[in-house]
Design brief:
The chain has 273 residues and is mostly helical. The protein is built from 10 helices and 2 strands; from the N terminus they run H-H-E-H-H-E-H-H-H-H-H-H. The chain has a two-stranded antiparallel ribbon. Helix 4 packs across helix 9, helix 5 packs parallel to helix 8 and helix 6 packs antiparallel against helix 7.
Length: 273
């Protein structure tokens, strides 16, 4: 079984991938709808594959269906409840006036992250960045738990597969946080740093919690895996898929979702052999 230090390292690398998503702001803060929606669809496919193949299936193999189903329900309710506590940010890259759907070549200013009521004492763009960062942090908790749970249960292959999926999914999350922060006047260096920390801190912390949970609670993997999978599925179907279909490129997002699912199938098969 892997050591706690190894688990923290893996989770840290996966979580810090949010910083990669911030790198484009060093060059530009504009991105086409089609590129963004396709990337989000691909990430959703990766995450769905991770939830099914690396959490639900092993959970059923190592425990009872009841444990996994209870975990799924609990994880989904946790994520939805957390979103109510911290207002969810739909990454609304609103269309520029005068442009219709399907204008592939139209660059979209990523400033329009979400409609937030203006408050006289709070900079609107900074508020957007903080809210996006909060949402990303919440979403990283179940993912980190899944990594820690897998490694503590002796399922190193599953743990690596989940970490790979998390890293891919974290890239568009990082971009979503970096753009409004940069446009609010935060320096590019600090924007990259804070975006990296938004995933690089909660992922390993949650991984430690998941690792210790299984260490001290015998046969905790099926229930804990269900919780992590339920939360991940809630993120996918409540947020990622609707957003990737919101700008007229549903077909592209659907195809990349399938591609992401296929990639996750390959990763899972390769790492768990």
């Amino acid at each position: 079984m892997s050591s706690l230090g190894e688990v923290v390292t893996v989770a840290l690398l996966a979580g810090s991938a949010t910083g990669i998503g911030a790198l484009p702001i060093l060059v530009t803060s504009r991105i086409s709808h089609k590129m963004y929606d396709s990337a989000l669809g691909f990430a959703a496919g990766i995450m769905f594959g991770a939830a099914v193949f690396t959490l639900v299936v092993p959970g059923l193999e190592l425990g009872s269906m009841t444990e996994v189903l209870v975990g799924l329900a609990g994880g989904g309710l946790f994520l939805l409840g957390a979103n109510r506590l911290v207002p969810h940010i739909h990454l609304l890259f609103g269309r520029e006036r005068g442009e219709g759907k399907g204008q592939d070549a139209t660059p979209i200013d990523a400033e329009a992250v979400v409609d937030v009521p203006k408050e006289p004492d709070i900079d609107d763009k900074m508020r957007k960045a903080m809210l996006v960062g909060s949402a990303i942090t919440i979403h990283n908790i179940p993912e980190g738990l899944a990594v820690g749970i897998a490694f503590a249960s002796g399922q190193e292959g599953i743990g690596f597969a989940i970490a790979a999926a998390i890293a891919v999914q974290n890239v568009p999350d990082g971009f979503a946080m970096a753009v409004p922060a940069s446009q609010a006047g935060v320096s590019k260096a600090k924007t990259v740093l804070f975006t990296t920390l938004s995933g690089g801190v909660p992922e390993p912390v949650a991984a430690v919690i998941g690792f210790l949970l299984v260490e001290f609670v015998v046969d905790a993997f099926p229930l804990a895996a269900g919780v992590a999978a339920g939360a991940m599925m809630a993120v996918i179907f409540r947020e990622m898929i609707p957003e990737s279909h919101a700008h007229g490129y549903a077909d592209a997002a659907t195809l990349t979702f399938i591609a992401g699912f296929a990639v996750m199938t390959f990763i899972d098969t390769t790492f768990t052999v």
